[in-house]
Amino acid sequence: MVLALLCVFIGGTSIRSLASEQEESKEELNLSEFIIHHVLDDHVWHFTNHLTIYLPVIVYSSERGLDIFSSRNFYDEYHNVINYDGYKLDHSHIYLADSGKAVLDLSITKNVAMLLITAVIMALIFISVGNAYKRNPGKAPKGLQSFFEPVIVFVRDEVVRPNIGPHYEKFLPYMLTLFFFILIGNLLGLLPGAGNLTGNIAVTGVLAVLTFLITNFKGNKDYWAHILWTPGVPLPLRPIILLVEVIGIFTRPISLMVRLFVAITAGHIVLLSLFCLTFIFSSIWVGFASSIIVLFINLIELMVAGIQAYVFTLFSSLYIGMAIAEHEHDHH
Q: What is the pTM of this model?
């Protein structure tokens, strides 16, 4: 509840800041651009008018080699985009100013910074929990350990073990990492001004690719036999079934990637859109009503954050379990 109220307050402050900027410059308030700007990645982490973090730009090109500088150099004192040292910034992409050629962008963007923050939080939490187990072996958990142990046990006993089977232990570290990375990323993304980490399709795509690689490299001969020569299928239908099965290999990770991306991004867009209703109707009453709705949607988003982590881990376990399952075949 406190998190939701904080989001309403600071989210409203952010939009008021945008409105004041537009009023000062006598330009029309572009709400769709504002929403997309907050959902997409950026080289600048903008909170309010007076709080902007300019992130480091790291670019490489065959013409210029490796260059490292602050993204502050791409903006003048009025926050207008300008060229810097032969580089230009266009819609968050960096190009060589002379040739217009794209460069290899290795910058610490907003989402990369969120990724590093998530990784640090996970490391601190689980190093602390692990050390607590070592200090108090066989004793009842306390503090942070007592909070995370039921979640870890739930993921192990209700998600991983039933779907992967007797050999689940070798995959449990990956599944727990997957679950907590998505959960913490989702929750951090609900904080005011935070980056849209798990709503970035590149991030969800990497997680899906990891599941895809584990599934197919650990798949046993029964798994591949079922795909390449499905038992019990009439010979004339085998080519069609083979095509369907091969397509299925790739549609599973794609569904994982898209489901998480759409669920998180859609939630952020809905929240920002409701905030913007105040300026569309220019009414304090609409602003009050939309803020109340946003409060409840934020609570739903907290639930969605956990559900999406659960669903991604569940389906990853299911796919891996199907790939390593051993089947008894009747030979006649």
A: 0.84
